Amino acid sequence: MNFIKKNKIYIILGLIIFLGLFIRFLPIFTYLQERPGFREGVILHSDAKGYHDMALIFVDNGPEGILYKLNDIYKSAEIPYLTAFRTPAYPVFIYLVYSIYGIKPLLVLLCQIFLNVMTAFLMFEISVLIFKKNYLALLSAFLYIISPLAIIYSVSMYAESFFTFFFTLTIFSFFYAQKKKKLIYFVATGLLLGLTTLIKPITLYFLPIFFITLIFSEKFSIVNLRKKVIEFCLILFFFFLVLLPWQLRNYLLFNHYTISFQQGRELLVWRVGSCIAQSDNLDKELVWSRIQEPYLNIPDIFVRSKAQQAAAIKYIKDNPVKFARCSLNGAKNFFVTKKMANNLGIGEKHEFLESLSSVGMISNYFRHFEFNKQTVDIISKTYVKFLYLQYVIIVFGITLLLKNKQSKSFTIFGILSVLYFMLIAGVDGYFRYRYPVLPILIILTVSSAWSIFELFKKMWLRFRKKTD
Length: 468
Fold this sequence. Notes:
Elements: H1 2-6, H2 8-34, H3 47-61, H4 70-73, H5 82-85, H6 89-101, H7 105-131, H8 134-145, H9 148-154, H10 160-180, H11 183-199, H12 207-216, H13 222-254, H14 262-280, H15 284-292, H16 301-318, H17 320-335, H18 338-343, H19 352-357, H20 363-368, H21 373-403, H22 405-424, H23 438-467
């Protein structure tokens, strides 16, 4: 009994993690039960197929496969330079699973599920580190465990779960470094951010957020500023040190010192192209196809990317108002809008199950319980209402958190991180880009709700004192 009393917080956390594992394993087991002849095609679609193909290069050629171009081996017509398009960390993770257990994508998902639920543990540790309230930390972990977004991507062979785990670990390392005030932890933060960027290059420009957070973490003085600059330089140096081998590899193979060639294509196609389609009410796929045509005859994919980037920047400079309007629409989609509501089954067309099945086997979770349309509508509406409530709580609670010295640094970091991922979500505002900051949003929601509660409690006690 003494053991239970002393460790009840971690026992509860263990139960929450077990619940998370159960929720995530169930759709996989029910799928295998329904279809014993498991087909890899259910997992290997869209981006998942690209990660799988890149992992096969390493399987077929060993570690030295990282020095090959995909078209040197497989003559791929779709993406001629896949190993320069995708960063290597997630495909290497898949390769490690394949090299141990054979080419079994399902086992990649099983390993990924463990990392997915361990994100809840990291959230618990971050919340305790910042706010020092165990039960608020447990609530944060629980809300993450039952989040549909976290569940969906845990059973999809996308890099989102893998990325979010290491991004959350980076955040923990960063704030732990500030607490312990030891330079070795800032080194760890830089290394982890570098690894995170090699999973998905979307954190390539994230460093300024660390710098701003460090500056506001303590009262300004020349001594503190010097100390913060040193800490940031350590993060900066080891971040680029992790990226260096991959950039050198791209230079040796393609004569271009860069992490990936996808920036130019992404900016032109998925930002500018989507903006043109949205503004002129055109078919998006058609615009995407046509906008790339002038550059397809450029054989060097990196030169092509630079040309695409230059064209995209020119369009944005020539049409700043239109692009800003499109980006604002994307920002709304990043949170909750009619588009997301439609995907969740609230709009005119009921697409809830279809949208979930498009990212993996999660739809089988609902089929297992034989949910009808009315039940799914209730689940969908409840989830969207929770999201609206979450944002309202954050908006009202954030001012209270900023006034608190204990939480000010994390709150600034959280606001900047959400804005960063909102901007990179693009014109379409894909809400999967909200997943990496889901842990931050949940921690801010719970801590904001508690701050609001404490404020009203103080106001009530003052009122009672005056009336007595």
